[in-house]
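hi! just following up on the protien thing from before. the input was this:
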Amino acid sequence: MKSVLSFLLATTALVTGGEVAARTDRFDVATAAVAELAGATRGTPGAAPALAVVMAAPGRTPVVYVDGVADTRTGAAAGPDTPFYIASMTKAYVGLMAAELDRRGVFDLDASLTDVWPDLTIQGAEPSTITFRQLLSHQAAIENDPLTFRTAYTDEVPAGDYDETLAMWTRPRETGFRYDNLGYLIYGAALEVRTGRHWRTWLDEIILQPLAMNRTAASVSRLSGAAAAGQWTGEQWISTDVKPDSLMHAAGGLMASPADLGRWLQANVEGQAVELPAAAFQVAHQSQIAVVADQDGIPCDGYALGWRTCALKGAPFLLHGGGYTGARSQMAVAPGLGVGIAVVANSETMTGYLASRLVETFITLMADPDASAPDVATFAADYADKVATQTRGRRKQLADRRAEAQWAGWMWRPDAAVLQAYVGRYRSAELGEAEVLLKDGSLILRLGEMAVSLEPAVSDLFGASADVLDRPDPVRFERTGRGVTAVDWDGDRFERLP
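and the predicted 3d structure came back as:
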């Protein structure tokens, strides 16, 4: 694989003062060290098809390291303009957008759910006390599993349906911080209800266009050459298309190129940008709730709007990661140090761990002039060991699952005529309409954008898997004298439609 490694270190202003000069030297040292560590992991069997590391500082051309292929099916090389799925890192973009819309008087962060949906009722909770500031900092003491599942895996819930969906399926939870997607989903829908414009349209106008991020979008279809999601079997890669547009939601719905991530990092480090004043960044970066947490070995103490607030070597910085099938990402900005870093990969083979170690190394080297980078060979060996251990663990989990007594040895061999009895449409009040299809002699269960293969186990019981690495979930069909009348998919019941 050919690397694209640019150390374009020309400054746009004269360096004056010993501290600025020292910081500039540390940036050169830190970027070189991190790029060397990243490169040393690339020969590991199972290392992501593509890995990108972006490091930025004001007045400097961002350092962009990219290695590998965007799609193992085609062998297309990844580069600085290749869009990667950044998953929950989207929250920081939406948080900044929300802060700016609040500043402009378009949508008040301290408005409540009943300010948008006056007739909304929630079992066990009072909507008038739940604000969007709370929702965007994961403080609202509510949960809605059907909504978070659907938006992540099956379909886009229309903004006009949110009042009913919230009323029917929202439940109270314990008070305090709990990280999930719900608050950002609700904010995106409420913004559309209040303004008549989709959150993606607002994001383009408020964030992406002013920062000239032309290879960042919340619609995959708008971008060519996107990095495919990669999954490692232990012998080969399985690559699939990234999320469809309908699943690109406000909690995790952006593709972004490494070059664009450089622009994003610089804007957050500088705390201002074209058409985005410092006041918006200050609100987005301010911790809203104290949360003591360890993020892959990085100590953090709070949550802002789409950022965790963390510190290393006494230096505070903002951090957020993202993950989905075949994708991992992480980014950090340290305005006090004048730097930012982002790491993106198109697989989950310990790439979240790798990103954390690269971020940790970069921030540590910038914060502590006496710090040294990890030994390159040891770093690479540690990563290789963790990938191998993860691969063995996944294989064992799959083997153990398939060996469970409920499957009775997978001995049932129904023919097409028997399978035809299960074909039809089924409906769940919570999750919507599913369809069972017969294709090439096998059953497929489709729920919106999600499709799983049904492998026969024993009469009326199938194992549902999305791919060869997926541990099968039980799918059990129910019968009466009228034939197949319902299906239970791992605890979710769907009634057969006429």
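Confidence is low (pLDDT under 50) at residues 1-16.
DSSP finds 13 helices and 25 strands in the chain.
cheers
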